[in-house]
Amino acid sequence: MRAKLHVNGVEDGSLVATLKNNAGLRLFVKPIKWTGLHLDFLDIQFVNLLPITQPIPRVDPSKATKDIPAPAQALISALDNLLETKSEEYRIRSILTIISKLYPQQMSFLDISELHQYFGGRAYRITCLVQAAWKVTPPRTSSTTPRESMSTRTKGSVEVPTVDNIGGRITRNQPILVYVDLKAIAVKRRAGYKATRDNSPVRRLKKLLYRKITPSNIKEDPFLAAIILALAQRPFYQDSSSPADETFTSSSELLSLGGSMFYDITVHILAVNDKKPSAPYFIIYKGLVRKELLQKFHEPTRNYGEETLAGTLEGRTNMQIEYTEVPIWPILGLKERLGKALGREVAGHFDENNIEMWEQDLSRTAAVS
Length: 369
Description:
Elements: H1 15-21, H2 36-41, E1 44-48, H3 61-64, H4 70-84, H5 88-102, E2 108-109, E3 114-119, E4 122-129, E5 132-135, H6 146-152, E6 164-165, E7 168-169, E8 176-179, H7 182-191, H8 200-213, H9 222-233, E9 237-238, E10 248-249, E11 253-254, E12 265-273, E13 281-289, H10 291-298, H11 304-308, E14 319-327, H12 334-342, H13 344-347, E15 355-356, E16 365-366
Parallel strand pairs: 1-14, 8-12
Antiparallel strand pairs: 2-5, 3-4, 4-10, 5-8, 6-7, 9-11, 12-13, 13-14, 15-16
Helix pairs in contact: 4-5
């Protein structure tokens, strides 16, 4: 059964209908300004899973820091830099080192950082940023390294997403992992409401507006949902080149003959929370984006949800974002703890009963508690 049409051809329950029916709420804004209202109207749900605290080794803590092998020393140094540095660039370099040490054969660098969102045939350009990304395949030889990519990229340059990327073609359902710097999100959001004049009323207004868009729980930041949506849309579109100063382009094309090619897609995000310096942890997000939400953004005057979801299980949301915390310390067992959070489709094979000890002889493992 088709959704009910308004006189202007807009279906009830479509994104355009939602925007018109709630015009006073200013929903059509940049993703950095998304709030809980966007999560509600788009039917997006965060689910906080239990922390993954195991495995950890049965090793005397006083002995665990003695005679640390060189691979482990490099990993510890990168983790320390990630947690201690105030520079976003150095945090990026640190996370690149960490992933290369933890999963050298499973993940290879993917040169994407600037993401577009697609709405009704238009690509709204560079609405979301990620700090690093990896595709889950054995690494291939490339003329561009992560370090070179960051250092040589021109400020203000724009990369329009295509199916072809550094290191090879992203195939259907090929998992990728992205790193999102929560500190960088906070800085970007605050910068958008910085008063430019020495005017008390303006400062107060900016402060009020900033408070309205600041999430009460940084682990459930609506901007993360926007990033997941942009990453989920990315495999289905390719753009022709357009001037770097345009905020959107109408040249985006779906990589098929119609919206029927959309399918459910899962996105993985890695973040860090070091609010408590003595117990920092990674946050692993697993966002499942339903094809109905992708279809609604592609054709925002139609309500695919009402037509396609009839008769499906109750409780099915357009986007479900599960997230779990993984303690960074101790370093022994970190690879396996992250592997449990990411899943074997991303982290590859691991044995949580025989954890990586970072010895030169990789056959040496340790029992776990």
